[in-house]
């Protein structure tokens, strides 16, 4: 706090007086000397207290010494500062100190309390006019233009010079003060106008606030209504979740049954008997085309053979007699054929029929392999497949569908998207160990189909990318 106070005084002295050498009479702990030295002024200090001088900053101590203001000073100075010192001296010592100050400088910054008589150490308390007269006796005049208020309200600056009547200076100062008063009055009027405007603005803000509060109350009521709806929805959800808990075990059992049937179906398709049957079906489709008279005759004979094999000769003869009697009466065909529109109304059946008609033969596969070997460019196809809790049957079927491709230059990137079913990791690791073109990543958490696909795409090195759904197959 004291350093800041004396720093302000030092700034004012440097800016307004610009002295080169300064003496601080009664410097105490040397704060003003320190502040002036830090600002490039050649400053010194004296004080009667050895303790105070011992507390001066170490690099400033050589510029401060123990000495009395009543002893003659050893040199001249551009400015002497004496702040609240002479009132502590006796009247005779105060006169000797003032004489020393006036002999050593032509410029003095001086302050001494004019009215503090309660302090026991104050011996020479005088009003400002008395000090002005004392300085005038030594040839120093009050500088009425200088503002020493940064030191104290009663601080003054005295400069050596001939006595003069400071009336012009006082009038000039009076004019400045009057202008300052007028400026302050104008400022007050402007502030009054500002206060009125602010009051009006306050009223508007209060009105807006009231409207906002009304809106908030309406929103609060709406929120309560929505919360009631939410509560009802949550109750509904809980009811549905209870029903779902009841249905889930049955669904899981059905999924397991479907997966088992699919597995057995795949196993059945790999048997020799199934392959022979598939060849016979292709021969049948060529010999007996769809929607032809031969196909209808085929179904009629097939039905007769089914009755003979399933129900025996006796039942076959009995049904044949019955059909002949109905036919003789003109009521019905001899044997029912399958519906004529079955193949045209069911798209899934149409696709299966198309697949059967266009199934590749070993000769077709060999022809395609020879053609591929002649290709000038063999791009690598990167197949990307995210996997999350897929049934083992569908998972194996999807992977095998890629491995069954005739085109050999491919790589399969399988990303386990944080699956919770343990068989997923086992199946993926199994294929990665047995097939060099299969690459597997296991994610620690589920990131969704997009996140898992992005992981796979970052590892893909092929010229083209194919996205594969594990439920579909290639």
Give your account of this protein's structure.
The strands form 2 sheets. The chain has a 7-stranded mixed beta sheet, with helices on both faces. The chain starts with a helix and ends in a 7-residue tail after the last strand. β2 (42-47), α3 and β3 form a beta-alpha-beta unit. The chain is built from 14 helices and 11 strands. It is α/β, with parallel strands linked by helices and 474 residues long. The protein is elongated. The longest helix is centred in the middle third of the chain and has 103 residues, at 167-269. The chain folds into 3 domains: 2-164, Rossmann fold; 167-258; 361-467, Spore Coat Polysaccharide Biosynthesis Protein SpsA, Chain A.
Helix-strand layout with pairing:
Layout: H1 2-16, E1 21-25, H2 31-38, E2 42-47, H3 50-54, E3 64-66, E4 79-83, H4 91-104, E5 107-111, H5 128-137, E6 140-142, E7 156-160, H6 167-269, H7 272-287, H8 293-328, H9 342-345, H10 347-357, H11 362-373, E8 381-387, H12 392-403, E9 410-416, H13 422-434, E10 438-442, H14 448-459, E11 464-467
Parallel strand pairs: 1-2, 1-4, 2-3, 4-5, 8-9, 8-11, 9-10
Antiparallel strand pairs: 5-7, 6-7
Which key terms come to mind for this protein?
alpha/beta; 474 residues; four-stranded parallel beta sheet; seven-stranded mixed beta sheet; 3 domains; Rossmann fold; elongated; 14 helices; Spore Coat Polysaccharide Biosynthesis Protein SpsA, Chain A; 57% helix; 11 strands
What does this entry show, briefly?
The chain is of the alpha/beta class.
Strand content: 5-15%
CATH superfamily of the largest domain: Vaccinia Virus protein VP39
Rounded to an integer, what's the Rg over CA atoms?
A: 56 Å
How many separate structural domains? 3
Q: Which CATH-level-2 architecture of the largest domain?
A: 3-Layer(aba) Sandwich
């Amino acid at each position: 706090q004291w350093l800041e106070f004396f720093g302000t005084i030092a700034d004012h002295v440097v800016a307004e007086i610009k002295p080169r050498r300064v003496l601080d009479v009664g410097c105490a702990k040397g704060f003003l000397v320190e502040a002036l030295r830090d600002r490039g002024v050649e400053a010194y200090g004296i004080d009667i207290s050895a303790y105070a001088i011992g507390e001066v900053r170490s690099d400033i101590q050589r510029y401060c010494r123990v000495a009395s203001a009543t002893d003659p000073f050893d040199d001249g100075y551009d400015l002497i500062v004496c702040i609240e010192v002479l009132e502590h001296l006796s009247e005779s010592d105060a006169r000797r100190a003032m004489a020393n100050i006036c002999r050593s400088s032509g410029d003095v910054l001086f302050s001494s309390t004019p009215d503090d008589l309660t302090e026991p150490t104050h011996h020479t308390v005088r009003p400002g006019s008395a000090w002005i007269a004392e300085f005038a006796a030594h040839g120093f005049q009050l500088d009425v233009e200088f503002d020493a208020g940064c030191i104290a309200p009663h601080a003054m600056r005295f400069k050596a010079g001939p006595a003069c009547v400071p009336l012009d200076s006082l009038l000039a100062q009076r004019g400045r003060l009057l202008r300052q008063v007028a400026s302050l009055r104008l400022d007050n009027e402007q502030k009054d106008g500002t206060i009125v405007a602010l009051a009006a603005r306050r009223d508007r803000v209060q009105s807006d606030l009231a409207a906002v509060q009304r809106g908030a109350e309406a929103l609060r009521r709406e929120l309560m209504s929505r919360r009631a709806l939410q509560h009802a929805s949550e109750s509904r959800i809980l009811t549905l979740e209870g029903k779902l808990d009841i249905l889930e075990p049955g669904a899981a059992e059905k999924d397991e049954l479907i997966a088992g049937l699919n597995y057995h179906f795949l196993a059945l398709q790999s048997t020799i008997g199934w392959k022979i049957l598939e060849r016979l079906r292709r021969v049948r489709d060529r010999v007996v085309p769809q929607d032809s008279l031969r196909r209808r005759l085929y179904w009629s004979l097939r039905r007769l053979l089914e009755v003979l094999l399933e129900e025996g000769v006796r039942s076959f003869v009995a049904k044949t007699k019955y059909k002949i009697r109905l036919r003789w009466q003109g009521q019905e065909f001899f044997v029912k054929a399958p519906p004529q529109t079955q193949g045209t109304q069911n798209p899934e059946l149409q696709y299966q029929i198309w697949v059967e008609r266009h199934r590749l033969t070993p000769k077709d596969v060999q022809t395609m392999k020879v053609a591929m070997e002649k290709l000038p460019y063999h791009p690598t196809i990167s197949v990307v497949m995210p996997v999350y809790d897929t049934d083992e049957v569908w998972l194996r079927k999807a992977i095998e569908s890629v491995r069954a491709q005739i085109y050999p230059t491919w790589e399969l990137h399988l990303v386990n998207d944080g699956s919770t079913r343990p068989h997923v990791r086992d199946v993926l690791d199994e294929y990665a160990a047995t097939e060099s073109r299969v690459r597997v990543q296991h994610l620690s958490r589920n990131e969704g189909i997009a996140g898992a696909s992005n992981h796979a795409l970052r590892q893909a090195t092929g010229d083209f990318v194919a996205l594969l759904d594990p439920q579909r197959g290639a």
